[in-house]
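One such given next:

>
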Amino acid sequence: MSKEAKLSIHRDINLPLDEEQLIETGLEMTQPFMQLMMCYKGAMMEVETKFKVLNEQFSLQYDRQPISAIKSRLKNPLSIVRKLRRYQFPVSVESIEANLNDIAGVRVICSFKDDVYALARALSDQDDIEILRIKDYIANPKPNGYRSLHLIVAVPIFLKDEKKVMRAEIQFRTIAMDAWASLEHQLRYKKDMYFSEEMARELKACADLSAEVDQRMNHLQSIVLKEEDNKTYKDSI
């Protein structure tokens, strides 16, 4: 494959175009690596589509959309190599596929906490999806206050002449959880800045307040749904 063709594929799957950086990682822009990343992008697109369909179904059935936003990303080659080396895995295409679960990532931002679990259940009920791992940081938040529901899933993609099963990571958050996580990341990893214990405690307190808001909004939503059910019942009499 010519260099121009490789760069074209690279642009199509939104990977960095710095070939020297890729050469340093030992992966380069080889055909097997590009093919693997294309498959991960396909898995990411499949998962996104599933949630878009579920959102439409919920909208039709319940007259509201539980998903506020869907975000997705492919881990870039340098991040892939750093993770392989951190866990002392070989740096190779085969090692990426065997050892890493989060090359393809999809984040589903929900309006309410109950929506998180409803969507996770709806996804797990689909017969072409296999749930490989669940980490519930909503029920069991991280020490810093981080909350999210993480799933590792296996999803099939269909190529020209084969079906291939790929892994992807899905993160479910409420709007409040996502806002806190985004701001926490900006503050904690700000360049040339010392992150003190006092700041960590304040962020944890903000996370707890955010969780309380989520809980109260979830309660209000349940009241609204109950009133709607009562009205529907009365109208049917």
Confidence is low (pLDDT under 50) at residues 5-17. The CA atoms of residues 107 and 236 lie 39 Å apart. Strands lie at 67-74, 104-110, 130-136, 149-158, 163-174. The chain has eight helices and five strands.
